[in-house]
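Most newcomers find our protein records easier to grasp once they have seen one. A learned vocabulary of local backbone shapes supplies the integers on the structure line. An example says more than a description, so a record of this kind follows:
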Amino acid sequence: MDESTRKAFMEDGAVLIEGCLNEAQLALCRQAFDWGVENPGPASCDLFAGTEQRTLNDNANPYAKSRLDELAAALPFGRLFADLWGSEHVWYFAEELFLKSGGKSGRSPWHQDTSYLPWSGMHFGNAWISFESVPKRNALEIVRGSHRGTRHDGTTFQNAADPTDPLHGGGTWPRLPDIEAERRASPGTYDIVSWATKPGDVLLLHPGVLHGGGAVDADFPDRHTLVLRFFGDDATFSPLPDHSISGFTPAGVLFVDELAALRHGDPFRAPCFRQLV
């Protein structure tokens, strides 16, 4: 890991690691992805219900936990994130699956993962693994440096007319900006970056960065992406709002029982998370 890559992750919130996974490692990831699609967990949902194309989103499938823990240990991400962050230790959190097919799925709304997860600190990272060659126009986009700024309320992902429809409400956190509307009205308002990727490339993303996109179209009809999440030494517990209109607890909706004893500022740790380094 060169110093410019470390600096880019800390300052920008995302970096692309080209050729991070070899063919065998990528095949293991695809096996885990396909198993998860065929055996969805209780948090799985259709991203665009009622439309022609097939879509799926799933988070921390408990039926897949043992196989995902083993997969994370077999991949290079423990040492990679330790080097990237300067962290002595690295833990694996959980996976997320994205499936969009049929060529008509729209972009995913802008959001921060930290609106949904009780996380604070620089030692958090998502590894985005796409199994197709993704053109830049269809790629995930980020607002450069936004992980070092405001933690916004999340979006419900359910209101097509208002992509800033609050997840929690109550004014505890500022409402999301309508980034798409603002960039159309005034190009250059946000410093937005994205990367075309090839199979084996991995996008490393801080979960606090504003990100969205990843549409499919007639020329790029299908996208299959496995996201693996990791954390390190300076990761702390930062609870969500006490009263969420969406029913989220202060610990979120994943591993709630395991995180129940943590308080604001505590190291983010629990025995259920596989230590890799």
